[in-house]
């Protein structure tokens, strides 16, 4: 049973390919459904892992990898059909590469930083922006998604700095950053 969160993360990784394939076929409603399924399994696997103490080293890698790959895939597809400007994709790509790099360095130092509310809010805002982009793409209404992307980017940047503060200022002696 403790592998269910990891299975859900692998499923999300597979959904990235399904999403891209559907997008190339201009099946935007199905893309939205796949994205929502991926988002839902992300929430579910995190909840299951924390609730049942099923957190594994594999899960610490698979879960954020699936999240980052889906986000980059979705934004790349949106850029390809001109729903978002290139600079949003570049900013998010740079942030993700920086977070992966810093995370890898911290991991080698046996420091594990867990997601906090800033990160969860940023994830939720990106999810909202993506859904709004699909609404605009499919039905041509609610052209407000770019504003939500900017808000998500701002919160994600704040989250990055908050992680840094937690890591380097509030670090407990055991190499594990804990939330209060």
Description:
This protein has 180 residues and is mainly alpha-helical. It has one domain (4-168): Four Helix Bundle (Hemerythrin (Met), subunit A), CATH 1.20.120. It is 78% helix and 0% strand. The protein contains 6 helices and no strands. The protein has helices at residues 4-24, 28-52, 57-80, 86-108, 117-139, 145-168. Helix 2 (28-52) runs antiparallel to helix 5 and helix 4 packs parallel to helix 6 (145-168). The longest helix has 25 residues, at 28-52. 27% of the residues are buried.
Q: Which value, in Å, is the CA radius of gyration?
A: 17 Å
Task: Name the CATH architecture.
Answer: Up-down Bundle
Helices, by number, come to 6
What is the CATH topology?
Four Helix Bundle (Hemerythrin (Met), subunit A)
What proportion of the residues form beta strands (DSSP E)? under 5%
Low-confidence residue ranges? 175-180
Structural class: mainly alpha
Q: What is the CA–CA distance across the termini?
A: 28 Å
Assign an overall shape. Answer: globular
CATH class: Mainly Alpha
Give the name of the CATH superfamily: CDP-alcohol phosphotransferase transmembrane (TM) domain
Q: What is the chain-wise order of helices and strands?
A: HHHHHH
Number of domains: 1
Counting DSSP E segments of at least 2 residues, the number of strands comes to 0
Mean pLDDT: 86
